[in-house]
Design goal:
The protein is an all-alpha fold and about 425 residues long. It is about 75% helix and about 0% strand. A hairpin with a 5-residue loop joins strand 1 and strand 2 (about 15). It comes from Allostreptomyces psammosilenae.
Amino acid sequence: MINDAPSTTATGVEQDTGPMAWYRALGPRGRRAFVGAFGGYGLDAYDFYVLPLGMVAIAGYFGLTTGQTGLLTTVTLVVSAVGGAVAGVLADRIGRVRALAITVTTYAVFTVLCGCAPNYETLLVFRALQGLGFGGEWAVGAILVAEYTTARHRGRTVAVIQSSWAVGWGLAVLVSTLVFEYLDPDLAWRVLFWTGVLPALLVVYVRRNVRDADVATARIGRARGGAGAGSFTAIFRREGGLGRTTLFASLLATGVQGGYYTLSTWLPSYLRGERGLTVVGTGGYLALLISGAFAGYLTGGYLTDRLGRKRNIALFALLSAGCVLAYTNIPAGADGLLLVLGFPLGFCMSAIFSGFGSFLSELYPTAVRGSGQGFTYNTRRAVGAFFPTLVGFLAASWGVGGALVFGAVGYGVAVLALLGLPETRGRELT
């Protein structure tokens, strides 16, 4: 039986130790913020994945090369660097909740417009503009919840927010499987983009029910209109070691996201093109991968509070690199083994992200927390975004499976970056 009741410490003070203690500790306002951030990131994932899941049909409709299809993902991630960095500054200046609503609205509108694109060039532009909102949502949502959370529970609380990525990913796979099963591919990919209107409903909830944490409200109120407001220059100053922190945090984000987006962008095409799976078969393989991802987010959140932020990231960076190499070297015809390895692959490549939200939030003070997390996470996402494009061009001669090995290189970079960052487990936000 699971013990979900408070325990008593040596001083006689009750301490909530149940498996849902992290959620109860948020309080009513924090729980509403949690719902808003969870929904925002889940739908962010949904709107991102409609492109990879529709990529084969899009390439066929417009007659694209693998390099051109890879560029669609790269431009999304490159522009997301701008969106994420700007959203971080906005979060420090106008508040977390207002910035969150702006980012969600942006990625929803341009995802829908992608489904109306008459040609490749227009689709490329709309997808780039979708990246503005896509880039900003995670940093803002993670900070919003982190500021409601105690140091004891911050790792797993923000990791549960991160797990909504797997929920959105899974929903996108389910919808794409149904759409492509019953509609002609030339129409199906457009319908898939049009379903990206769903986040508009979330914006209504966020604006009506969610408020910034007191620590952010007080700091933003003092800084608004003054020199203390969030800025990019502030996160590079030498005082307090912020410049060094920004450098190594950026390198860490580059490595992790380069590995992740390489795999998430090209895996559907690899399964269909080189492994010869049908749309339904691919959906089944991805379902196991996504189940592993969801379990990985939750497990990584627990471990990041137990082992520490740095150890958790290092552990799963190494395991992710090993899984990528194993997954892409499975012999032809061994599709059963491909299925079995899908779960640990999804588990490891997602567990590494579990500590990111809490780690980056703890590396920066409240005055520049949005600017710091928005810049490091998203500008490095743009650099990591060139991994999928490189894979796209190399796939013409190496095959998608062979080119995917470059994703493992990113995880090696992440491990090296950890050497320049402090451990922040137990740090209270100030």
